[in-house]
Amino acid sequence: MDGTILTKTVVLDGVKETTIDVSGRDQWGRPIDQRELNIEVRKAIGEGADRIILEGVMGQRYIASAATNRCLYIGIKGTPGNDLGAFMDGPTLEVFGNAQDMTGNTMSSGRIVIHGNAWDVTGLAARGGRILVKGSSGYRVGIHMKAFGSSKPSVVIGGSTGDYLGEYMAGGTVLVLGHGVPEAESPVGTFIGAGMHGGVIYVHGRVDEHQLGTGAKLCPLEAEDREAIEELLSDFERSFGMTEERDWERYSKIMPMSSRPFRGRFDPTMVWP
Amino acid sequence: MNAPAHASLDDKERVFDRIIPDKFRPIIDRNACLNCKRCVKECSFGALEWKDDRVVYKGGCVACQRCSAMCPARCIEIATVPSGLPPHASYTERVRQGINAQASSGGVLLCSCGTDMPYGMIFDDLILDAAQVTNPSIDPLREQVETRTYVGRRSSRVMLSGDGYVTESDGSGPVVAMDMPIMFGHISLGAVSYNCQRSLFQAAKDLNILAGSGEGGLHADFLQFADHINGEVASGRFGVTPEYLRRTAAVEIKVGQGAKPGHGGHLPGEKVSDLISQTRMIPLGTDALSPYPHHDIYSIEDLQQLIAALKESVEYRVPVGVKIAAVHNVAAIASGVVRAGADFITIDGFRGGTGSTPRVIRDHAGLPIEVATAVVDKRLNEEGLRNRVTVCAGGSIRSAADMIKVIALGADVAMVCTSALIAMGCQVCQSCHRGLCAWGIATQRPELTSRLDPEIGARRVTRLFHAWNEELKEVMGAMGIDAVESLVGNRDRLRYFGPNQKIAEVMGVKHVGEGWG
Ligand code: SF4
Ligand code: SF4
Questions:
Q1: What is the predicted ipTM?
Q2: How far apart are CA A151 and CA A160, in angstroms?
Q3: How far is the CA of B500 from the centre of ligand 2 (A)?
């Protein structure tokens, strides 16, 4: 096979599905250039595709960045590169494999479902939409997520995460389920919620005081938290065909100490010229 | 005066607040005063009050001139009051004021505008050249003097293809054409009022130049100006939506700001009004925090990635630039930024303005824009990168003369902020961070913002920069230069007439008296 992209469109029951096969390699064995792939994806969107299936993705970055079509579904087979769905506002992305760094960077709305692991900084600065990761994720998950009005971002990680979970968080919800992590260990790292001033982090499993970052505190789980978790859990179950236990006593909840962390830090006294 | 014995510690401590007297004081000519109370209403800092049938001064004057400008009898004069503090050359009044304020609050001192420390302006030590005899000057009224300026990436060379057409190599990027080498810097909604931003955007449209959006996103009403807006992507990512990226004429990643290099942004909850909360897309009354770094940029490679993500998101239709603060290693950083794919790079000098910053950073960190521009231009030239990018430079461009000099030092575009604000009433009182601006500029209070009429603001800003551009043409004509591009980096048309020859050497500018040879 040479380094060309194979595109094929079928209409089934009124649904227009475009399959874009990027498994080709050039003469030196390198994968298709990300720019070409993205042009092809945008072309398919422009032509009114309802579903786009990407085959043989190999680290190409910025897939579906700034895409806005709310009804669009993009299925990705292989491993997409960094910034998957960056600045996205609306579509649903489903990855049948692992994702890399900064999945859903600054996304406004939409849905990203990952059947494998997602690497670092998943959900960076998202202000809406949902990211579901069946496996684990790395450092800085949910960093600086924010919420406004009815748009509240949420990130659910099935496995564990690294340090700085929810750092600088200003809104939204992060849920870590801790699959595969022994009960005696914590599924999350240290500096959790460092500098956070909004939003909430739920961890299914152990979180000790020393793991918290500055500005974050552990809180007891309330009825409304259980409702919020229940909604996320059922979405997770539906997305991956799994069943989760409702053992509420194992959940830890992390909240910001204040929505005004800088209050009192500054002295606005008039400066003398 | 001793506090009574039963007074609390706080009461007893109050004496310290009296040590530093006010620096300014409105002096009212009682004979002329009409007792109309206008000044009391106008003073947003609450320095005047109506008491015992007359206006009395309560304290806290910032010399913003609002009362005296609005007084129908023109009978208020703002006086600078000698402090009466024992003089000391090292422990100046300013130093002692800072110490006292911090001993009372324990806080980081805030301030606004550009630094007022007497570092000296290198611009004022530079003298322009003019043409005589062998290189005749041009009369800009009779002949065309071109000031059109392009922002974006250029191809590194043009070639003649086999079939006789001129082609470019190394891909030029999209460019934005501006009628003059001026752009407004990033002044965000939040730092300034709706009316102020509207004035700036309208002026940018009328002048056909770019205006920075600031990091606060774009108000829906301002989408009509999107063709003239340079949309900022800061670490807080406020308001960065696909529509914002699609509609603005350029996109700029903010890494740093001259007034606060290395510092993030912090809009206190008090200023997060309804309007700001909607535009920034954050809840009402919470602090709007822009982290100090971008959490996806820890290296040039990471920066390259964000630039690429944005280019991909704007579908390569508009230039993507990067703004950095002028810091000591600025030349190497600029080189990395250009290599990372920036189509334009903005360098913000240490005298640049701000709506709020810790004073310790504003006054003590960074590099003057004159030097920064010259060393960046030199470095990019040495590395064969200069002709590929647009270099914008700002941070205390106060006049057409500064603009001309910064261009001759190596910038394509002069970025201005404070001068535009002064045009619409700002008195540089350095109180923006208090959110009480009496001129309706740096405030979100409706009763104050209504003081600035956006039409008048736009008109005054438009006139100002139109005039600057005419002055630029005059000077270029006098130099015998017919296109501003020929002035860019043309240090030979500058001479240094200052105290420190080393500065001239670093900038690559000859001393006065040294000839062409
Ligand atoms: S505005 Fe002028 S005339 Fe009116 S009260 Fe004040 S000082 Fe008197
Ligand atoms: S914008 Fe207003 S508060 Fe800020 S310096 Fe100017 S006059 Fe003073």
A1: 0.92
A2: 26
A3: 33
- Separation of B283 CA from ligand 2 center, angstroms? 26
Query: Which helix or strand (DSSP H or E) is residue B475 part of?
Result: helix B454-479
With beta carbons under 8 A apart, name residues in chain A contacting B81. none
DSSP string, B48-95: EEEETTEEEE-S------HHHHH-TT--EEEEEPP--PPP-SSS-HHH
For B461, other C-beta atoms within 10 Å of its C-beta total 27
Residue-wise pLDDT for B15-54, tens only, equals 887 777 788 999 999 999 999 999 999 999 999 999 999 9
| C-alpha dist (Å) from residue A184 to A129, A180, A209, B446 | 33, 12, 15, 56
Q: How far is the CA of B288 from the centre of ligand 2 (A)?
A: 21
Residue whose C-alpha is closest to residue A132's, from A119, A107, A115 = A115
The 3-state DSSP class for residue B40 equals helix
Whole-number Å distance between alpha carbons of B287 and B211: 26
Q: What is the pLDDT of residue B1?
A: 44
Report residues whose beta carbon is within 6 angstroms of any ligand 1 atom: B 28, 33-39, 55, 71-73, 75-76
Confidence band of B169 (pLDDT split at 50, 70, 90) = low
Cα separation, B495 vs B502, in Å, equals 13
The answer to whether B307 and B332 have CB atoms below 8 angstroms apart is no
- How far is the C-alpha of B325 from the C-alpha of B349, rounded, in Å? 6
In this predicted structure, the answer to whether residue B452 has a pLDDT above a threshold of 60 is yes
Contact A88, A110 (CB under 8 A): yes
* Backbone phi, psi, residue A50, to 5°: -90, -35
Q: Does A262 contact B433 at a Cβ distance shorter than 8 Å?
A: no
Task: List strand residue ranges (DSSP E) for chain A, in order.
Answer: 6-12, 15-21, 51-58, 73-79, 89-96, 109-114, 130-133, 154-157, 170-176, 198-204, 216-219, 251-256, 266-267
Q: End-to-end distance of chain B based on CA atoms, in angstroms?
A: 72
Residues B137 and B477: beta-carbon distance below 8 Å: yes
Residue A61 contacts B where some CB pair is shorter than 8 Å = yes
Most informative mutation of B28, B43, B54, B56 for ligand 1 (most atoms within 8 A of CB): B28
Indicate the residue of A86, A168, A268 with minimum beta-carbon distance to B309.
Answer: A86
Indicate the residue of B60, B241, B430 with minimum beta-carbon distance to A273.
B430
pLDDT tens-digit series, residues B274-310: 899 888 888 888 878 888 889 889 999 999 999 999 9
**Would strands B250-254 and B510-511 be described as parallel, antiparallel, or unpaired?**
unpaired
d(CA B45, CA B61): 7
pTM: 0.93
| Alpha-carbon span B403 to B60, nearest angstrom | 36
B246 touching chain A per CB within 8 A: yes
Give backbone dihedrals phi and psi of A62, rounded to 5 degrees, phi first: 60, 25
